[in-house]
Amino acid sequence: MSNHLGLSDIEYELMCFFWDRPSPVTFAEILQFCNERMGWGWAKTTAHTRVTRLMQKGLLDMRDVKGERRTYFAKVSREEFVQGSFERLLDFSAAGSVGSFLLSFVPRGRLSRQEAEELHRVLDELAESEEEE
After folding, report:
1. Which residues have a Cβ under 8 Å from the Cβ of 64 and sit 6 or more positions away?
2. In order of start, what are the domains of the chain with their CATH numbers?
3. Phi/psi at 86 (nearest 5 deg)?
4. DSSP string spanning 45-105?
5. What is the model's pLDDT at position 104?
6. Is the pTM of this model over 0.85?
7. How many of the other CB atoms lie within 10 Å of CB of 83?
8. pLDDT at 13 > cutoff 90
């Protein structure tokens, strides 16, 4: 099982489903995605459990309007999720130091020359913008 920024493969696929929707979805639409598009063959209880876990993680929310079906939606955007995951990784792996984090890629040859040049360009632009302030 892979790990997508702290989510299992299935949780990540479900979140992508919500992130790709412009409006809230019904439980029937969630179940249809899980079974028809993904082929998971889930019972309603299984889908409900997965949705509930994502709600407990603070990633999904539910709208329950009297007289209407409950609808579900992403509580955080994909960008907010990635940013938060990166910040947690940074705090965990490099004690919050971006420099230490980036330097961890250099000795292992994980930073290509092109990537290093791009990083250098971005840092130069950042330094120039700070000097102008």
Report:
1. 70
2. 3-74 (1.10.10.10), 78-132 (1.10.4040)
3. -65, -40
4. HHHHHHHHHHHHTTSEEEE--TTS--EEEESS-HHHHHHHHHHHHHHHHHTT-HHHHHHTT
5. 72
6. no
7. 12
8. yes
